[in-house]
Amino acid sequence: MDIRVILEILLLLCIANGVPVAVANIVGGRWGMPVDLGRTLWDGRPIFGASKTWRGLLCATVITGVCGVLLNVGFGPAALFAIAAMAGDLF
């Protein structure tokens, strides 16, 4: 595998995982609906964790897709990569 491809993958991974944190720091608690819609496990903990929001999933997908266009990877493949990274974070 070419080193450029590896670096692009690592960059997209950092973007996908960093964007939700950055957006949360910028907008605070606004638009932060939890992915689990407030449901909890038997012990009272959130199913997916307190910081997993639809806002974070959407922002990670869109911004990683845009960065994919800038890297000549394409919006679709980069957005799918972000979705896969966010799914991995949920579980």
Describe this structure in words.
The chain has 91 residues and is mostly helical. 64% of the residues lie in helices and 0% in strands. It is built from three helices and no strands. The protein has helices at 3-27, 54-70, 75-90. The two termini are 28 Å apart. The model has no long low-confidence stretch (mean pLDDT 91).
List the defining traits of the structure above.
3 helices, elongated
Put the structure in a nutshell:
The protein is mostly helical. It contains three helices and no strands.
Estimate the mean pLDDT confidence. Answer: 91
Number of strands: 0
- Structural class, from helix and strand content? mainly alpha
Contiguous helical run count? 3
Helix content: 55-70%
Q: Rounded to an integer, what's the Rg over CA atoms?
A: 14 Å
| Residues in β-strands, percent | under 5%
Major sheet description: none
State the distance separating the first and last CA atoms.
28 Å
Secondary-structure element string: HHH
Shape, please? elongated
